[in-house]
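hiii so um. not sure if this is the right channel but i have a protein structure encoded as tokens and i wanna go backwards to a sequence. like what aa goes where. can anyone help
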């Protein structure tokens, strides 16, 4: 299935992220991630280092890092579901994290695997089955140094079409 030529604005995706944090996943709302950019291939999300996201060492708490990886690894599902006008059931099935150095500044999370997410959604739509894919996320500090890497196993299943 080819993607429709529909365009989803960054503003709409930011609104969807806000609603997700406000209505469905309060921890996301508490950390307040900012969607920097999203397109068919790449998503970039920023989490500021501040009181809510710091640990006792004044670096970003690993839970806040996990929230950033969650958003960067999963928001493509919402993006492609919206583009295709599909209802998609989505969850993370697993995660592997490597914390390379302390994140002592704001952190940007990036995933360049939108094509993989799109293929998983398309396969689920064709088969009616749940599909799992591993998505890689890289977290960088303000100096562009990698502070953590994540392998997120995303699980998607296409449900009924939206009306």
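sure thing!! here u go:
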């Amino acid at each position: 299935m080819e993607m429709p030529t529909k365009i989803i604005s960054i503003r709409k995706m930011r609104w969807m992220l806000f609603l997700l944090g406000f209505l469905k996943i309060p921890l996301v709302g508490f950390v307040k991630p900012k969607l920097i950019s999203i397109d068919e291939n790449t998503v970039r999300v920023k989490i500021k280092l501040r009181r809510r996201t710091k640990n006792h060492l004044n670096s970003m708490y690993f839970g806040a890092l996990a929230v950033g990886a969650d958003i960067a690894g999963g928001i493509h599902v919402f993006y492609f579901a919206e583009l295709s006008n599909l209802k998609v059931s989505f969850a993370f099935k697993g995660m592997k994290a490597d914390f390379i150095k302390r994140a002592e500044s704001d952190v940007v999370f990036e995933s360049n695997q939108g094509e993989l997410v799109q293929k998983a959604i398309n396969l689920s739509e064709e088969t009616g089955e749940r599909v799992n894919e591993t998505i890689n996320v890289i977290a960088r500090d303000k100096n562009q140094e990698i502070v953590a890497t994540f392998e997120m196993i995303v699980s998607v299943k296409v449900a009924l079409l939206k009306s």
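oh and The first strand starts at residue 34 and ends at 38.
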